Amino acid sequence: MGYKTDTEIAREADKKPIQEIGAKLGIPDSELLPFGHDKAKVSAEFIAAQAPKDDGKLILVTAINPTPAGEGKTTTTVGLGDALNVLGKNAAICIREASLGPCFGMKGGAAGGGMAQVVPMEDMNLHFTGDFHAITSAHNLLSAMIDNHIYGGNELEIDERRVTWKRVEDMNDRALRDIVTSLGGVANGFPRQTGFDITVASEVMAILCLADDLDDLQKRLGDIIVAYRRDRSPIYCRDLKADGAMTVLLQQAMQPNLVQTLENNPAFVHGGPFANIAHGCNSVVATKTALKLSDYVVTEAGFGADLGAEKFMNIKCRKAGIAPDVVVIVATVRAMKMNGGVARADLGAENVQAVLDGAPNLGRHIENMKSFGVPVVVAINHFVTDTDAEIAAITDYVAGHGSEAILSKHWEQGGEGARALATRVAELADSGAAQFAPLYPDDMPLFEKIETIAKRIYRADEVLADKKIRAQLRAWEDAGYGNLPICMAKTQYSFSTDPDLRGAPTGHSVPVREVRLSAGAGFVVVICGEIMTMPGLPRKPSAESIRLNDEGQIEGLF
User: Residue 109 has what pLDDT?
Assistant: First the structure.
């Protein structure tokens, strides 16, 4: 049986005017700022007026560690949201915006797949409503103002060797990781070493995703530490008087974007920090707005549950005062087999033993998510090559871990194909069984927080950090930042910091290469192993096959 491509399905979507989608959530036309016919921003005034309403139930979709075989986390998020609506529930979904870097690199887009997609897919994977451009501009305005201040006499006594604020762009470009600026003579300023991160790793992105409103946004922007003086005292964004102008650039970007699924159900797509180098969740504003406007909100956290879900629980929920009612872990037979050592080319053949060999990765994620006090369901995202015996192997394995696995066919059948999953998820969400608690208390010392994540989530034996890093953490504690949560930056492919170590490894160590204080976002970034905050393009980037066809349609974007 031949299947249409995701792009073909998205193009054939019967989209409703965005005002109709807003009406489903009780948003009047006057409170929508339309971008064309099929996407709109929701006004800050309308959002503020929803505060007295009760919250709906929050459903977090996460996954096993990603493999090249694909897990379909966003696809499952969309399919589950559609399925809840099929059941007659008032449900919305909340996902992140796509970064141009992976779209033109190797990962592709972030709009779901098959019959479980958010549209307009091509817009979402490209410029969308311009949020990422606004974040990039705001970030780089601050960069420009730092160098301009130094050039203009350096009244703040910035130590040029201790400027911590880099520049950003939303593209994978390894050539910009480590650079020297201001070459070419006196008129261009003072040469110094710096670099670029990708926009999704920017602290401005994290701040936009964690801020409650524009006032909170400006305060957090002002709190950014951009550099240090020779006496090691910090220099803040507000010292350079950049926070007001940055807020102006971000005013519209702070408003959540409303779009729709293929089944014309509401979807908020807002914010997009990566989960391997940032906190990996969509914006607090979008999630909280959805909770006020619908009875069930399905949201996702990036990559595997060791990264996105851990940060969702320990950073987003802690900061936003929200808690998940149920967690859905997405797994596929194909990914189980790959974790079990099967080569990608051989995934189509039945191999129950390989499924069982790879299952401990799933088992560990189940245990980890349960440790937060939240009920867990496993969604087996169905592929046409899956056999009954392979599916039964996963189902039995999950039952042995005190959870349940439900086969879901949303990719092929849309919301109707995820009816069983939605029914059980809604039951658990309504049961009140969740007793959510984060992994560590605010007042635990920073290094102990890092050790807690490494040992309890990654199952590492130890954290390796040299004296300089430990001293830096203690200095931040002395400066009043000891109560911040931790944002681990590590490979998404393994529980360990070695991307090739699949399954459920034990006996490994977590080497900490660098720590960064994100005082505005309100967390400490801990960079582990070889992880890069500015990725490079692969040898054969997706960009090579992206083009306009004779009808003016975009080809090669997925």
Answer: 63
- Phi, psi angle pair for 436, to nearest 5°: -65, 135
- The yes-or-no verdict on residue 330 having pLDDT over 50 is yes
Q: Is residue 439 part of a domain?
A: no
Same domain, 123 and 141: no
The answer on 427 and 368 residing in a single domain is: yes
pLDDT digits (tens, 9 = 90+) for 468-491: 999 999 999 999 999 999 999 999
b (16+ CB within 10 A) / e for 345-358: eebeeebbebbbbb
What's the pLDDT tens digit per position in 540-552?
A: 999 998 999 999 9
Q: What is the pTM of this model?
A: 0.95
The CATH number of whichever domain residue 56 belongs to comes to: 3.40.50.300
Structure token digits, residue 137: 């501009």
Q: Coil, strand, or helix at residue 188?
A: helix
Residue 194: which domain range?
131-250
pLDDT digits (tens, 9 = 90+) for 82-135: 999 999 999 999 999 999 988 888 756 668 889 999 999 889 999 999 999 999
Residues 140, 124 share a domain:
no
* Backbone angles phi and psi of 335, in degrees to 5: -70, -35
Final residue before a domain boundary, out of 203, 221, 250: 250
Angle between helices 131-151 and 203-210 (to 10 degrees): 130
What pLDDT, on the 0 to 100 scale, is given for residue 2?
A: 60
In this structure, of 145-149, 283-287, 339-343, 386-390, the range with the lowest mean pLDDT score is 339-343
At residue 3, the pLDDT reads: 74
Is residue 91 within 8 A of residue 297, CB to CB? The reply is yes
Q: What residues contact residue 425 under an 8 Å CB cut-off, 6+ apart?
A: 59, 80, 84, 326, 328, 377
HEC sequence for 466-518: CHHHHHHHHHHHHHHHCCCCEEEECCCCCCCCCCCCCCCCCCCEEEEEEEEEE
The phi, psi pair for 21, rounded to 5°, reads -70, -40
What end-to-end distance do the CA atoms of the chain give, in Å?
A: 21
Q: Any idea which residues carry the catalytic annotation? A: 73, 75, 96, 107, 275, 303, 383, 411
User: Contact 154/289 with Cβ under 8 angstroms?
Assistant: no
Is residue 231 situated within a structural domain?
yes
DSSP letters for 222-285 = HH-EEEE-TT--EEEGGGGT-HHHHHHHHTTTTSPEEEEETT--EEEE-----TTTS--B--HH
Task: Assess whether 462 and 395 both reside in one domain.
Answer: no
Residues 269 and 215 reside in one and the same domain: no
